[in-house]
Structures are given as structure tokens and as C-alpha cells.
Amino acid sequence: MRQTSTAPRNNKLKPSSNLIMNGSVRVRVIRTLLAIQNGQSLSSVLDPLLNSLHDGDKGFAHALLLTTLRQWHALARLLDTLADNPIDEVEVRTTIQVGLVQLLYLEVADHAAIHETVEAAKEIEFAHSTGLVNAILRKVAKNPSKFRKKCDKKHSLPNWLAYQLKQDWSEQYDELTQGLRQPAPMFLRVNSAVTSVEDYQHALDGAEIDADIVELTTGFKIANSPESATATTLSTKGLRLHQSTAVNALPEFALGVASVQDMHAQLAAPIINKALMAKLSSENNSAESANTDNDSDESNNNELHILDACAAPGGKLAHWLELISSKNESSLFHVKRDNAETSSATADIKVTAIDNEAPRIERIRENLQRLNLSQHDLQQAEKSVVLSIVCADATRWQHGKNKKAATNEPVFDAILLDSPCTATGVIRRHPDISILRTEEDIEQTALLQADILHNLWPQLKAGGYLLYVTCSILKQENVEQMQDFITHHNDAVAIEFTEDCSWGIAQAIGRQCLPIDSASGDGFYYALLHKTMA
Fold first, then answer.
1. Which of 25, 102, 401, 503 is deepest in the core (most CB within 10 A)?
2. Is residue 501 flagged as an active site residue?
3. How much is the pTM?
4. What digits encode the pLDDT tens for the residues 24-60?
């Protein structure tokens, strides 16, 4: 999934990575926050910050930075009530907000929080503000519980986003806006081709890491024909850790036995895989009833072609490859070989993954390498899978575009589109999103999503399935996008998710996960589309 980017908001703020790495812990956090306000993402500045610190300071710096981001907008509103006059200097505002977090949320001793924050103001060359910083922090330190209540009373989101959430989710608004300012739990996906969730939970127990098994049930109706559909269900299991843990402490993590992946994100690969399995079973049954000669079109019968669009960093792609590689009933090979003997020398399954940035492509390769799912690994395991990873723009890319006869023609049996979005569903993990996003980003993102859908849909075969996924909780990017798409594509039919689903909220099309349900997963939207013969 590729998040949309935003331009710097304040050209005055350009702290370099070298500046971030200098000074006291608080100064480095302040400079990191200034970099984020200048348009840099948390993911791009967090590692440089932590790597510049001694081990004993990393925990405090991480907590100070993440908590300040989570409470950013609430702190800003509180600060406006504490100052006699507006504070326009962003460096001063940021410094005071870092001080407020220490007093209200991290329970740092008053004298230490105030003194070190005042010294930080001097160190970033805003000594003229030390009197103001000192006065505001001392006022709060006299009654921190009072000011903490004021800060927690409302949301900590930009007003435009809070307003949009009120429009989209009026019933869930209060719980949702409070939930978005909390840390998210850490989830693990276990490689089903290697071990079971239950066995890996036992391994975690042996490493003194507590985790609960979370099981989500998905039900949907697969179209057998224009007149009939069959209900199908599947179960997805993952592990929710009681406390976040460094991956190098997880048993056999380096060997690819487990991956860090949100529980709601773990729904994507099983859903599209199950839909494709149902398609194969339906085709097999149709071939049997028609007494089809298996030798008449052997290459077509023996080959599937699937696409993961906007695939980086590769979590959903890896999950799908794990399911394909498994030896149980979740494997596509299991369905393909149920109906007929195969002797074709060609690959049973071709997998294409695309993303539009070279560094992100490299990230996919690295993740697959750790999970033993690279093309070399698949060949060594004697799996009939050909994996192709392509750096391309999904709004224009066409399969086989380098061939003379390349056209925007149907070649894929299934497409997983983890669409670019504003990522508002993962604010708990990436609290910088609430600073970086603007109201204009929603419209721009929705247009980008539509462009990708319109380009990929003609490349899906009739009878095939496209799973549309976002990590957004805004309806314009989700259900409204799907409604508009179906209106303009007569051959697109939305597959109904049934009441068997134990996750999400039913929408006019698809289902919406909010980061407040019992599983505690992130905000994700899912819509499954079937392509008819229209």
C-alpha cells in the first residue's frame, strides 16, 4: 500500500538529519518533530533519531516522540488557552508541546521536564522564548490532572478530519476519535506453510512472550452464474502480543516463520485466494458436467495468472504466496489438481507484483527473501510458481507492455489492489499522518484510486475477481469509490459479504473495519468485485 505524499507545509523548517542527530534527547525529538511538520514522514526520521542515541535513551525518545504526535492537535489547542498571546513561532510551540507531554503523559518529574525543556529552547537558538516556556510549563505542573483532562476531553485530530469522521461515522465518532490517539497492538502472521498459529504461540510462550490467538471469520457469496451464488466461509488466525516486542526477540523470525502484520491486513490474501479457489472449483465442475476434453486446452487449464498491484512492502503478497505454497486445502494447487492430472511443463501459477518506486521494490524483495519466498526459493521448493516483480505506475502499466502485441487485454484471473489512500486507518501506528494530511489530499487520492481501477479492470478476465483494499476510514476512498466504479462498469458486480463475517461494518458495497473493534486491528476497507461477461 502506497500512501499519498504531501508537500512541505513550512519552508522555514529544514532540519537536516545531521541536526537531528545533535544535542540533548529532547532537542533531537524537537528537531524530528520540526522535520515532520516540514513534510517528512515518521518512518523516514525515526530510525535516524534512534540510531543517534545511546541505548539507554532510545526508549524515552521513542515514547516522547510518539506520544507528542498522538496528542499533537489536542496539545496545540491546550497551548492556545495557556498563552496570553498567540505563539506563532513553530519552533517555540513544538518545544512547549514536548514539555507538556512530559508533564501530562510521561510522568517525568516536574523539575526535570521544565528545566530540560527550557534548556532545549536555548539549544535550538530560541533563548528569547525561555521565559514563556518556563511560565507555561510551571502553570501546568501545578495541576497536571486538570490539564490532562482538558487535553483528553476531545479528539486529537485536525478539525477537517474530525468533521469528516463525524459525517462518515456519527455513531462511532466519539469512540473512534479517542481510539485513534492510542497505541496499536502488535500482531503476528504465522507462515502456514511452515507451522501453525497454535505451535508458534507455544514457541512464544517458551520465549516468555505472551500472545493471544485472534480468529476472524469471513463469509461471502461466490457467483456460480448470473442466476446463482454459493456462500463460502473462511477463518483467518493471527497472534496479538500483550506487549510490543523487538522482532529479533521473536522465535525464528529471521527464518521466516512469522511476520509483523496487522490483524485486519491479514484478511486480504485469504479472501482473494478463497475467491480464486471458488472460481477454479466452478470451472472444474463446469468442465466435468460438459465432459470437456482435458487435452483440448491444456495450457489454459494448467495456468493461472494473478496480480498484486501496489504491492510494497510485500506483506499481503507474501501472505498470498504462503497460502499458495501450503500443503493444505488453502492451496490453489490443491484445487487445480483435484479435477485433472497435469503434465504441462509450464508454470501452474504466474504471480506478478508491481509498485512504482524502486526502493519499495527492493523492500518487497528483502521481505520475500527473509520469508524464503523469492523466485529462487520457490524454484528450489519445486513449486510451479513464477514470480515477477515490476517497478511500474499502476495508473498506466499494462501486462506485457514491452511486447509488440501488448494491449490492455484481460490476462489475470485475480487482482489484489492494495490501493493508495490517505492511511487514516493506521493513524495509531503512524500518528504523523494527522499532521501531514490535508483536506485536499482526499480528493486527489480518490482520483488516483479511480485511475488505477480503470487501468487494471480491463486486464482482469471475465469470471475473475478483484479485491479492493485500503487502510483508510474515509468513505470517499472506500464505499463511495466502489459505488462510482460499478456505476461506470456494467461488467463489475460487488460480491456480498454475509453475516458470517466477524469483522467490520457492512457497507452498501464491502465492509469497513474501524480500529475500535474487539480484534483491535487497524482501519481497513474491503470490497470484492466479480467480472461478468457483460
1. 102
2. no
3. 0.91
4. 999 999 999 999 999 999 999 999 999 999 999 999 9
